[in-house]
Amino acid sequence: MGQNNKRDINIFGLSASQALTNQICEQLGIEQKKVQTIRFADGEVLVQSLESVRGKEIYVVQSTNQPVNENLMELLIALDAFKRASAAKINVVMPYFGYARQDRKAGSRQPITAKLVADLLTVAGANRVITVDIHSAQTMGFFDIPFDNFETSQTLAEQIINTIISDKLDYQNCLLVSPDHGGLTRVHKVDEYTHGLTEGVAVIAKRRPEPNKAEVEFVLGDIEGKTCFIIDDLIDTAGTIVNAANALKAHGAKEIYIFACHGLFNGPAIERLSTAIKDEVIKKVVVTNTIEIPETKHFEGLEIVSVASLIAPMIQASVNDESLSHVYDQAKEKIHQKVEKYIKVH
Fold it and tell me: What domains appear along the chain, each with residue ranges and CATH number?
């Protein structure tokens, strides 16, 4: 365990991330610390720690997904409570960072809300912010406090490898696909883990005439007869990802799997994805549990994988003042060994 004892890890989960927080604590072999959230009749929120945090380093876990403003406000109030209770260092773990897509002025007289949220978190008392697959890396520059973005490349890659093995796919005809040019970096990072069981990368060129709407212009890459794994950071209304799958199918793709970090599944998303699976355009949709997806949003063909195995060792390394890069390297080595073993047998 290094120089620190497990009892030194103080993790509080707020309303939006209770299940994930419990999984993280289970991986670390500790109990989640207790916090109480009270909602008054007029909508006001009161957050109170039920345990002393004086002089302690703490981790507060809260995704700011729908309802975005309510979850964000609960987080800010919790930070103020911990700060006033004399916590020595407050680490905010935001598995999903709401407002991350508002990271620039896309039009006249528009706000940069991601910067506003960064300022709010800092003023409320955050000493460090940790996110998972934030929409745009430039958001890191909005913070004047330490900021870490944990990437799910290894989580998604391992799941892709498991899918290839369990579904007995011809790995020599498996291809990674970026749904847009901006996502190529993400796909290349996954390729660093899956290379050997996936052969090459393709990209879909698209344009956005308006928010939550995308039009496919062309597909770059040889995808005919290939099993395609589309990799994206999030699925919101699913219009973009389904259009991408349809474009791949039209260009001769054999099978299409969708892998994404954040499953928002808003508006017509469930209907669109369910229809695409029913019509055999999409084989399976895999997302992580950075957002707790209610049963009402589950559908046939959906698979949810946990990021607790990503976050927990990172927290442990942080507590022990160890390199986070080393944690990534260990995971990569383990995955590479699995790939090499499978290729050797097959």
Answer: 7-150 (3.40.50.2020), 153-308 (3.40.50.2020)
